[in-house]
Specification:
Number of helices: 6
Strand content: 15-25%
Strand order of the largest sheet: 5-9-10-3-11
Order of helices and strands: EEEHEEHHHEEEHEHEEE
Radius of gyration: 20 Å
Largest sheet: 5 strands, parallel
């Protein structure tokens, strides 16, 4: 399967019942969609994501009226993730209760799923490290360190964000756990803002630095203003090959040099 490196343009024929046609030319790295409530920011993101069914296949599975242009042009699949920020109570809590885990909100459920992906990611990089070390290549030790570097970077970033509360990732365990003043905490015991940042960083990490598209719909809602300012830079540091497409109401998200990547919905409407 030939995967796209990034999306170059999004076109939507009718955003609101036959009105408001959209044509948005995208930057390779960072794209921020802004506008007042109700103007269609989340609707644009949702239409694209909803159309990327079957694991990211397009154009045959795209919704009618939604068109994506990508690089390379003949790619038929897109790796992507979607981050939403609303920490609502779980609807199917009875199902979760049968699994013998303490999950109360949608962020908890996302973290539970990401824990599984994190385990798979560690197995994958572990196998790659073993293969490199057994290759006999004189640079095998350096190559092994390079393979392990993103995971170590992720752990350092999380520790840095959580430093004010004294939480640190327990690096001797395969699943995410936190040490705090002699206690070991599950991710589900974190604050909403901490859960949100952990979800974002885990989502980026497990893509294993492959080119992919990260959609984020108002990811800043639960985040401290300093974390909002660091959000885009942190995501790009963890995966330099990511393309970010996000909606936001917060000026803090773009304060670290991203103001020129902001697009108003009114600027991409086609008359």
């Amino acid at each position: 399967m030939k995967y796209a490196e990034y999306i170059t343009q999004i076109e939507i024929d009718s955003l609101w019942s036959g009105t408001k046609h959209i044509r948005w030319t995208l930057d390779r790295k960072v794209n921020v969609l802004s506008g007042v409530n109700g103007v269609g920011k989340s609707t644009i993101i949702n239409k694209v994501v909803k159309g990327l069914s079957q694991g990211g296949e397009f154009p045959s599975h795209m919704l009618k009226g939604v068109k994506l242009s990508v690089t390379p042009e003949d790619a038929k699949w897109i790796r992507y993730d979607i981050i939403r920020s609303f920490d609502r109570p779980l609807i199917n809590s009875d199902v979760i209760a049968k699994m013998d885990i303490s999950l109360a909100t949608e962020l908890d459920w996302q973290l539970f799923q990401l824990q599984r992906k994190y385990l798979d990611y560690q197995v994958n990089i572990g196998n790659r490290i073993i293969s490199v070390l057994q290759s006999g290549d004189p640079d095998s030790a350096v190559q092994a360190q390079q393979i392990a570097a993103p995971k170590a970077m992720f752990q350092d970033l999380v520790d840095g964000f959580f430093a004010d509360t004294g939480k640190k990732i327990v690096r001797t365990e395969n699943e995410i756990r936190f040490a705090q003043i002699g206690e070991v905490l599950q991710p589900y015991q974190l604050s909403s803002g901490e859960k949100q940042m952990l979800v974002i960083l885990l989502t980026v990490l497990v893509e294993d630095q492959q080119p992919y598209v990260l959609f984020m719909d108002e990811p800043e809602v639960s985040l401290h203003i300093e974390w909002q300012q660091r959000l885009i830079d942190t995501v790009m540091k963890l995966n330099p090959n990511v393309q970010i497409i996000l909606t936001t109401h917060s000026p803090a998200v773009i304060m670290n040099g991203w103001m020129d990547r902001v697009t108003e919905v009114s600027d991409i409407e086609v008359k």
